[in-house]
Amino acid sequence: MNLVVMKFGGTSVEDPAAIGRTAAIVAGRVAMGKSPVVVVSAMAKVTDQLLCAAAAASQGDRTGALAISSRLRSRHRDTAACLVKSADGGPTLMQIIDDKFAGLDEILRGLAAIRELTPRISDLIVSHGERISSHIVAAAFRECGLDAAHLDAREVIITDSEFQKAAPLDDLIEKKAQENVLPLLRAGKVPVMGGFIGSNAAGLTTTLGRGGSDYTGALVGGALNAETIEIWTDVDGIMTADPRVCPDALRVKVISFEEAAELAYFGAKVLHPATILPAVRKSVPVMVLNSRNAANEGTRIMSTAPHCRSPFKSIAVKKKLTIIDIVASRMLMTHGYMSKMFAIFDKHKCPVDMVSTSEVSVSLTVDSNASLPELSADLSSLADVTYEGKKALVCMVGEDIRGQNGIAAQVFAAIRHINVRMISQGASEINMSFMIDEDDADEAVRSLHAAFFRDPDPAVFDVEARKQLSVISGQ
Ligand code: ADP
Ligand code: ASP
Ligand code: MG
């Protein structure tokens, strides 16, 4: 069986036209003799809106929460009406949509009365995005002649009970995928399931964290030993920088698992940070492709990438970070000091991105939404603590910086007009990162891009697209 997992992000299912393109792409794979398993996100922006509804309800704004739900219901109904004309056997798609929204409204009403939004209720609310989009996509596929079968992702993606950031339980997922997905494939069907959502041992709904549909795609691909995992999105692949920040970013044709994981972790939104792990474990290649430009060959993520004469493959930026400065009057680096400090970060489940130390101080960077006041109160038992938000981490990734002299000098020359707060060259030796003010981040990326991608290696980067663009713009 030539099993391919195809994950489509929010923009690839955002409206009837996008779902139509998605159906054509999947039909193309079936025509090539492939057996696709399709994983879909919620329609674009739906997760954000569901979170707004949850926030409104938890503040007692019942009317506001129900109004958001009502707008979402209309959007999903309109999309369904446009795509599915024939009676589909069993409950109609409209009934399914109405049932799901009736359930959602009931939860929102309850929440408005209780006014306490727990992570568990939040997950239950946001799960509606993927639960409903997957039904619409499956029905739209059938309308286009594909033999699609809807599958509830919560019957496959089994996780722990860490609501909002649940960890998948690989062995159970493998078993469930074999029990629930393989029979559909053997019957010649195209299974369609929602990404992002799962369930714990007690059957309660969990989510894998924002952007988690990529992760679902990779988990299913890993569990079923897929031939390839395809991540379909709204850009041509992994680019040399976020094209929204740097319009002349180039597509990276091939990148290593290690480089892609580093980029995702350090803010390249195009992939969820954990996506690569299940694929690496089973050596399943991952492709990043554009559902608006399906003919483009995208980016191939492989265990080893070819040598590249440019030191970096891409520049990622992680915003909304905070620098915590810990200053002790007596010598910091006494035995056991660091472990006491990290035990506090551990207690608050707060991951640290970057650390730099001097004789009497330690600076660390964390996500700004971490429980900073509580964290800093605990740290104050060890030393004086100050923290400063609105920081960004710029991370330049490439395996070919290994062993090259003078790269750091070139990096800092390119951004000499920007104030750099902390610097680190990762132990992995494939990234060079530094911390700056958030407001300087876009400018820093553009300056670095201009300096390092002036003469890109055509074996690794799509330089043809840049040439075509300059012909069109007459440059
Ligand atoms: P999806 O909904 O398909 O999961 P996302 O919005 O999560 O899509 O990710 C795609 C977006 O990631 C792109 O539109 C782009 O703006 C952003 N992005 C950030 N960094 C990069 C990069 N290096 N290469 C490509 N896209 C990037
Ligand atoms: N819908 C979820 C989100 O917006 C998951 C995803 O799209 O990957 O975060
Ligand atoms: Mg995404």
From TrEMBL:
Binding site for ATP: K7, F8, G9, G10, T233, D234, R244, K269, V270
All copies of domain Aspartate/glutamate/uridylate kinase, residue ranges: 2-290
Residues annotated as binding substrate: T47, E130
Catalysed conversion reaction: L-aspartate + ATP = 4-phospho-L-aspartate + ADP
Span of domain Aspartokinase ACT: 324-368, 394-452
PROSITE patterns: ASPARTOKINASE
GO BP terms, alphabetized: homoserine biosynthetic process; lysine biosynthetic process via diaminopimelate; threonine biosynthetic process
Statement: the UniProt record of this protein carries the keyword Lipoprotein: no
GO cellular component, one term: cytosol
Database matches in SUPFAM superfamilies: ACT-like, Carbamate kinase-like
Keywords: Amino-acid biosynthesis, ATP-binding, Kinase, Nucleotide-binding, Transferase
EC numbers on record: 2.7.2.4
Top-level taxon: Bacteria
Pathway: Amino-acid biosynthesis; L-threonine biosynthesis; L-threonine from L-aspartate: step 1/5; Amino-acid biosynthesis; L-lysine biosynthesis via DAP pathway; (S)-tetrahydrodipicolinate from L-aspartate: step 1/4; Amino-acid biosynthesis; L-methionine biosynthesis via de novo pathway; L-homoserine from L-aspartate: step 1/3
InterPro entries referenced in this protein's UniProt entry, alphabetically: AceGlu_kinase-like_sf, ACT-like_dom_sf, ACT_Aspartokinase, Asp/Glu/Uridylate_kinase, Asp_kin_monofn, Asp_kinase, Aspartate_kinase_CS
A GO molecular-function annotation: aspartate kinase activity
PANTHER family per record: ASPARTATE KINASE, ASPARTOKINASE
Protein family membership: Belongs to the aspartokinase family.
Name of protein: Aspartokinase
Organism taxonomic ancestry: Bacteria, Pseudomonadati, Acidobacteriota, Terriglobia, Terriglobales
